[in-house]
Amino acid sequence: MKCLPVLTAFFFLALLNVALGADAPNAADQQNQQVLAVAKEVQTQQLAIAENQGKIDAKLATIAEYLRVARIWAGRGGKK
């Protein structure tokens, strides 16, 4: 998740650039709305990615635990 702060900073700077550099008020408002919409969409996607990563990590931890138990039982198996 290293790209989260980078993307947030990029969209903040883009929004700041549009807000400070626009000449026509109507064009500036339209560009601001577009940038804000894109920024909100990216934030929504980042939240979904973070949730999915959490689910993946939980499933990997479960699988790792099952493998650990299976190795313990397999190690106890054939020795008489």
Helix content: over 70%
Largest sheet: none
Separate helix tally: 2
Q: Could you say which structural class the secondary elements and strand pairing correspond to?
A: mainly alpha
Summarize the helix and strand pattern as letters: HH
Mean pLDDT: 83
Q: Strand content of the residues, in percent?
A: under 5%
- Number of E strands: 0
> Low-confidence stretches at least 5 residues in length (pLDDT < 50)?
none
The backbone outline, from C-alpha atoms, is rod-shaped
Integer-rounded radius of gyration: 24 Å
End-to-end span in angstroms? 49 Å
Task: Kindly list the characteristics that best describe this protein.
single chain, 80 residues, mainly alpha, 2 helices, 0% strand, rod-shaped
Protein described:
It contains two helices and no strands. It is mainly alpha-helical. Helix 1 packs antiparallel against helix 2 (25-77).
Topology:
Elements: H1 3-21, H2 25-77
Helix pairs in contact: 1-2
In a nutshell, what does this entry contain?
By secondary structure, the protein is mainly α. It is built from 2 helices and no strands.
